[in-house]
Amino acid sequence: MTRPSDAARPLAGVRIVEISSFVAVPLAGMTLAQLGAEVIRVDPVGGAADYRRWPLTEGGESIYWAGLNKGKQSAAVDGRSAEGQELIARLIVDSGVLITNAVGRQWHSYDALVEMRPDLIHVEVSGRADGGTGVDYTVNAGLGFPAVTGPPGLADPVNHVLPAWDVTCGLYVALAVTTALRHRDATREGQRTSVALENVALATAGNLSFLTEAMVNGVARERIGNSIYGQYGQAFTSADGASFMVVALTGRHFRDLTEMTGTTKAVAALGDAIGADFTDEGQRYRHRDALTGLFTVWFTGHTADEVAGALSTTSILWERYRTFAETAAAPLVTDNPLFRVLDQPRIGEYLAPGLPLAVDGHHRPAVAAPALGDHTVELLRDRLGLSDAEIDRLVAAGTVA
């Protein structure tokens, strides 16, 4: 049973091997590490495909790699050699859990490893449901989201810069591990789980009705720019050029918006003229352009500070648009207990997010990411029982680094 002091580390004592690159599985591994698991990331000697991924420091260190591998241990092993494969397999068997997006490798497949560890938990991520390759941006292109992203009237598809399916898939992988651990605790049985990035995206599109709308109503979602489908929401610009996102989801929100902008009578007159009932959210959405025209007059007549001050006194949902640089310097980050100063070797000190979950009111702080191969010798000696002479031989042969 988890002691109260361990509430923020429910996976303490769990060991996991991660063979991965890019976003989904590294995010899963980091999340599991933040929950207390000991996560060993195994990379090829010299690093996997994402070891030098942008953004880089001036010295060529990957800020991206450090960001997704916080709190892990790192082993660098030549997985192309038979001896290297045997070492990695032994680490997996010792740990009892493998998460990977390196598919199609028989030597670390479930069938090969379960012979050595019957209660193995094996979670494998593929790009597509048929086992084919795919990444977030190619999967997203085939779903339909780029066709409805961007301003109205645009003919070309627009990719979103957030790899949403990678992030969602990574969290599904972490969930798969935690549920498999519960199953193993209850039955002493392992579990083989496969997760297709494409299926994660398809399930989400279906659950949010994007696909179902086309099936049931026979219509395709339209491009609406910064508006919100089925609700009233719109971006406005102040007199001094600042942009705000304003959202009125409820009747109260909408009433406050009309009162703040001094358009209560004008909105009522508009409703009478076109036969619209603006107490209905669907009517507010359908006639959003006409309503926006009324509200825009007020926003363009006030400065950013005046807009922010007025919005702050209402129930309206709103936020000022920021750049990443502005957000990084804002209290949203600098005064947020989620962020602590992290001294990341090779990169420097910066505010890094810990576990987003607040357990008993506290966030577990971030732990620095290792350098490639930082823990290779320690793992070979302590986990696999190799002698110093054996490890020296493996290093000299280039099997480990």
TrEMBL record:
The keyword Disulfide bond does not apply. Coiled coil: none annotated. Pfam families: CoA_transf_3 (PF02515). GO terms for molecular function: transferase activity. The keyword Phosphoprotein does not apply. Keywords: Transferase. This is CoA transferase. It comes from Mycobacterium yunnanensis.
